[in-house]
Write a structure and sequence with these properties.
304 residues, alpha+beta, six-stranded antiparallel beta sheet, six-stranded mixed beta sheet, 16 strands
Length: 304
């Protein structure tokens, strides 16, 4: 067993040396795609946290090495299974985003924001967001970390910010969904949080939702509803208020609708399926989640 462990460690270090040598040699985005596809497997499956974090750092190095190639901004990267590579709908930036599952049930996160002019910003996670952060603006150096799966730009009075919806695997008991805002300061540095989530006189910079690990929470912008829609979270029967690791989606939906650059809180959003005037037949919104599906717990990108 000890001999096998030594061989495994040696193979990993040889592979890691190859990965770190890549930036000096490669001029190919497809070569980078192949290498990152191998590294992402190490991120999810290496036996130790140190090996997983090293593989994550290697992914960042490989990506940064190709950012001066035009194709890096447009290439689809079809072989990636666990990496996110989204573009903002207004084409202002591209977000490369991934996480590192650790053996204690928590995660580290990494993000690279690539701009069309080939400049980029590198983000590493620092802790987990909580309800106390809902009133705080967070600079890039204090980014909490998340996997973002939806970006919705908002432009008001010639200023643009980006509404983000993300997932954060908090610990072994609970997950979190994050509704946040990304904007860029005068130095084009990313900043998270903006006072745009309004509920009467109360305004928050972001929203943080925590729920039990075995549940799946819906949080998404639905064009058919012209709103951000999320599950109302309630404690499981017999569990007290505030024990968020026991919270599950209830039977109603809340959300936000955009008005003059702010997201205005909606106590209830009707998610019943509309019926035709003739046959009263129900139909699904093509872009809404199927709320009756068999839900699976876990990370939407890593797929625990």
């Amino acid at each position: 067993m000890r001999f096998n462990g030594m061989i495994r460690s040696l193979c990993f270090h040889v592979f890691l040396c190859f990965a770190l040598a890549f930036p000096a040699k490669s001029q190919s985005v497809t070569e980078a795609e192949t290498l990152v596809a191998a590294l992402e497997q190490r991120v999810g499956q290496a036996p130790t946290d140190a090996e997983r974090i090293a593989a994550s750092d290697s992914i960042a190095e490989v990506l940064m090495a190709i950012f001066d190639i035009d194709e890096a901004y447009t290439h689809v990267f079809p072989t990636w299974k666990k990496m996110g590579a989204m573009k903002a709908p207004d084409d202002a930036f591209r977000l490369f985003n991934w996480n590192v599952p650790l053996n204690d049930g928590t995660y580290q996160y990494r993000a690279l924001i690539l701009f069309p002019d080939k400049n980029y910003r590198d983000l590493s996670s620092h802790g987990s967001p909580d309800r106390g952060s809902e009133g705080k603006i967070i600079a890039a150096g204090q980014w909490y970390g998340a996997l973002y799966y939806q970006i919705e730009p908002v432009t008001h009075k010639r200023e643009t910010y980006y509404t983000l919806m993300g997932w954060e695997g908090h610990n072994s008991l609970s997950n979190k969904k994050i509704l946040d805002v990304l904007w860029f300061n005068d130095r084009n540095e990313p900043v998270f949080g903006k006072p745009v989530f309004r509920d009467g006189d109360e305004v928050k910079m972001r929203r943080v939702f925590e729920f039990t690990k075995s549940a799946q929470m819906t949080l998404a912008y639905l064009p058919a509803k012209e709103a951000i829609v999320y599950d109302d979270l309630v404690p499981m029967p017999g569990m007290g208020e505030g024990n968020y690791s026991s919270y599950v989606p209830g039977t109603t939906h809340r959300g936000y609708r955009l008005h003059k650059g702010e997201w205005i809180y909606q106590e209830r959003i009707d998610m019943t399926r509309p019926k035709s005037d003739a046959g009263k037949a129900q139909f699904n919104f093509p872009d809404r989640p199927d709320l009756n599906r068999k839900r699976k717990p876990g990370n939407p990108l890593i797929g625990d």
